[in-house]
Design a protein that fits this description.
Number of domains of chain B: 3
Helix content of chain A: over 70%
Strand content of chain A: under 5%
Shape of chain B: elongated
Distance between the termini of chain A: 55 Å
Oligomer: heterodimer
Number of strands of chain B: 6
Structural class of chain B: alpha/beta
Number of helices of chain A: 4
Strand order of the largest sheet of chain B: 3-2-1-4-5-6
Radius of gyration of chain B: 25 Å
Structural class of chain A: mainly alpha
Order of helices and strands of chain B: HHHHHHHHHHHHEHHEHEHEHEEH
C-alpha cells in the first residue's frame, strides 16, 4: 500500500510539472512537442526490456518482443523526426 | 513486483539513474519552450532515454537475443519513418506513433501479467493497473490506427456511425471496467485481461470513427495524451517511477494541447467527441450568400495589388498542406520582401490537421518563426494589412463566427481577415469547409477570389510578380 501511495504521489507531481512546463511551449512548436512526446512515451521500452526474460514462456516472449519493437519505433522515430523538424526551426541564422 | 528488482548493480543505483533520466526528460521538454533551445532540449530528452534503457539492460536474466530482435526491427522502422516522412504527413506520423505507444503498453502489461502469475506475485494493485493499462493502451492503439487512416485518406474522412453508437460505446466501456473489477477480485485470472483488450480495441474504433476533418487536431492531441497515460499505467504495473513520470509528462502535454484546440474552436471536448457538427437547417444557403457578389481575380491582377502594398499577411489553412504550396508561398514572400514589403503569417491554432501543423510546413520552407503571428497577436493589427492572402483556409476565417449566433461555428475565435484592406482568397472553388457552411467573406466587397490549386495559382502569381 505504501508503495502504491508513493507511486501515486510521483504520478500527481509529474502531471503537475508537465502542466507547468507544457503551457509555456509556444504554438509554433506544438507539432515537435507531439512527436517529442511520442518519443518519451516510448519509455515503455524499459518495461518491454524487463519483460523479455530468458525463463519466459513462449507467449510472454512474443508479447515482450513485439513490445520492444513498438516502443523502439517510438523512441528512434520520435527523437529523429523531432530533431529533423527542430533543425528547420533554427532557420538559416 | 519482486522479479524486476534483480540487477547486476545495487537497485538503489538503478533507481537513481531513473531519477536522472526523469530530470533529463523534464529539462528536455523545458527546452521546447523556445525554438532556439529546442534542438538541445530534444537531445537532452534522448540522452535521458538512452540512460534509462542502458541501466535497464543491467537487469538479471534478460533474454538479450529477443531484445536485440525487437530493437532492430523497431529501430529500422523508426529510422525509415523519421527520415522519409514529408512534413505535410506529420499528422499521420504522430497519429500512428500514438498508436504504437498504446500498443506497447498493452503488450508489456500482458507480458507482465503472465510473468507475475507464474511467480505468484499478482496482487490486486498489479492486476488492476494491468487492466487499466490494457484498457487505455488498446483504445489508444485502435483509435490511433483509425485516426491515421483518416489523416492518410485511406479511410473516408467524414463522420461514420450508426444509431445507438453512444449507448454501444458506453456499454463497451462499462463492460471493460467490469473486467477490471473481475481482475481485482480474481487476481489469478488472465482471461479478463484479454477481454478488456478486445473490448477496448473495438471501443477505440467506435470512439474515433465518427470524428473527422477539422476535428482531427483534437483527436490526435487526445490520443497523444492517452498514449502517455497508458505508459504511466504500465509504470504502476511494474512499479517503475521513470515510466510513471515520463508517461504523466506526455499525458499532461496531450491534455493541454487538447484544451488549446477545443478553445480555438469554442467547443467543449465532449462536443467535439460526441456531437455531430453540421450546417444548421435555417442557415443561409450558398446561393443567398454568394449570388452575384463573388469577384474572381487573376494572378496578374493580384500582382498589381502588391504594387501599392506595404504590409502583406498570409493566412494558411489545410489546403496549403494538401497543395504542398509552402515553398511557393516562400518564393512569393521573397519577391515581396525584396521590394520592401513586410510579409507576415497569421496562424490559427486549428489550421491544418494537428497542433502546429502550419508552423512546421512554413519552417520547412525556411520562413523565420518570428514572422509567424498567433491569432491574438495579428487580429488587432488587421486594419493595417494592405493585402491578406488566405491560402486553403475557410472556416477559421469565416466572419459568421462573430456575427451569427445560430451558426455551427458561432463564437469560434477566427482570424479577422475581412478587416484587412484587401483580401485575396486562393481556393479551388466556393465549396464549404468542414463546418459545411458558406463563407460571406468570399462575397465581401474587399475580397477577391483567385480560383485554382493553391500551388499552381501561387506559381502563376510568382511568375506575374517577376514580370511586373
Amino acid at each position: 500500500m505504501d508503495a502504491l501511495v508513493a507511486a501515486i504521489t510521483v504520478f500527481v507531481l509529474a502531471v503537475y510539472i508537465g502542466f507547468e512546463i507544457i503551457t509555456k511551449v509556444p504554438p509554433t512548436l506544438h507539432t515537435p512537442l507531439m512527436s517529442g512526446s511520442n518519443a518519451i512515451s516510448g519509455i515503455t521500452l524499459i518495461g518491454a526490456v524487463i519483460s523479455t526474460r530468458s525463463d519466459n514462456e513462449m507467449l510472454a516472449t512474443v508479447l515482450a518482443v513485439a513490445a520492444v519493437a513498438f516502443a523502439t519505433i517510438n523512441v528512434v522515430g520520435g527523437y529523429m523526426v523531432t530533431h529533423r523538424m527542430l533543425d528547420m526551426f533554427k532557420g538559416k541564422r | 513486483m519482486e522479479q524486476t528488482s534483480h540487477f547486476l548493480i545495487p537497485e538503489g543505483w538503478v533507481n537513481l539513474a531513473y531519477v536522472l533520466a526523469s530530470i533529463l526528460f523534464i529539462s528536455g521538454l523545458k527546452g521546447l519552450t523556445h525554438p532556439r533551445t529546442a534542438v538541445r532540449g530534444n537531445l537532452t530528452s534522448a540522452w535521458g532515454m538512452l540512460l534509462a534503457v542502458l541501466v535497464t539492460l543491467l537487469a538479471n536474466g534478460l533474454a538479450f537475443q529477443w531484445i536485440l530482435l525487437g530493437a532492430v526491427i523497431g529501430g529500422l522502422i523508426g529510422l525509415l519513418a523519421a527520415t522519409r516522412v514529408q512534413m505535410t504527413q506529420m499528422p499521420e506520423m504522430v497519429a500512428i506513433f500514438n498508436g504504437f505507444g498504446g500498443g506497447a503498453s498493452v503488450l508489456v502489461a500482458g507480458a507482465a501479467l503472465i510473468i507475475a502469475h507464474r511467480s505468484g506475485h499478482a496482487d490486486v494493485q498489479t492486476t488492476v493497473s494491468t487492466g487499466l493499462s490494457g484498457l487505455i493502451g488498446a483504445v489508444t492503439f485502435t483509435g490511433s490506427l483509425i485516426a491515421f487512416g483518416k489523416l492518410a485518406e485511406k479511410l473516408p474522412g467524414g463522420s461514420i456511425g450508426f444509431p445507438g453508437m453512444k449507448a454501444f460505446n458506453a456499454l463497451l466501456g462499462l463492460a471493460a471496467l467490469a473486467c477490471v473489477g473481475w481482475m481485482a477480485v480474481d487476481t489469478a485470472a488472465t482471461l479478463p485481461y484479454w477481454i478488456i483488450v478486445a473490448l477496448a480495441a473495438v471501443l477505440g474504433v467506435t470512439l474515433t470513427i465518427p470524428i473527422g476533418g477539422a476535428d482531427m487536431p483534437v483527436v490526435i492531441s487526445l490520443l497523444n495524451s492517452y498514449s502517455g497515460l497508458a505508459a504511466a499505467a504500465t509504470g504502476f504495473v511494474l512499479m517503475n517511477n521513470v515510466l510513471i513520470i515520463a508517461g504523466s509528462l506526455v499525458g499532461a502535454s496531450g491534455i493541454i494541447l487538447t484544451q488549446i484546440m477545443c478553445k480555438a474552436m469554442n467547443r467543449s471536448l465532449s462536443n467535439v467527441l460526441f456531437a455531430k457538427l453540421g450546417p444548421s437547417a435555417d442557415g443561409p444557403s450558398a446561393d443567398d450568400v454568394y449570388g452575384g457578389k463573388v469577384k474572381a481575380t487573376s494572378p496578374e491582377e493580384v500582382a498589381m495589388l502588391f504594387d501599392t502594398a506595404q504590409r502583406v499577411l498570409v493566412v494558411p489553412g489545410y489546403g496549403l498542406a494538401v497543395a504542398q504550396a509552402q515553398h511557393t508561398v516562400r518564393d512569393m514572400a521573397n519577391i515581396l520582401e525584396s521590394r520592401g514589403i513586410t510579409v507576415e503569417y497569421g496562424i490559427h491554432p486549428v489550421a491544418g490537421r494537428m497542433p502546429g501543423h502550419m508552423n512546421v510546413l512554413l519552417a520547412e520552407a525556411d520562413v523565420p518563426y518570428e514572422k509567424l503571428k498567433e491569432m491574438d497577436e495579428i487580429n488587432p493589427e488587421m486594419e493595417q494589412i494592405d493585402v491578406c492572402m488566405v491560402i486553403g483556409a475557410n472556416d477559421v476565417v469565416n466572419p459568421v463566427a462573430r456575427t451569427d449566433p445560430s451558426s455551427p461555428i458561432a463564437g469560434m475565435p477566427i482570424i479577422d481577415v475581412d478587416k484587412a484592406r484587401t483580401v485575396v482568397v486562393v481556393k479551388r472553388s466556393l465549396s464549404p469547409g468542414f463546418a459545411g457552411i458558406p463563407n460571406p467573406l468570399f462575397a465581401a466587397d474587399n475580397c477577391l477570389m483567385m480560383f485554382g490549386d493553391g500551388k499552381k495559382a501561387l506559381q502563376e502569381l510568382v511568375g506575374a510578380l517577376k514580370e511586373g
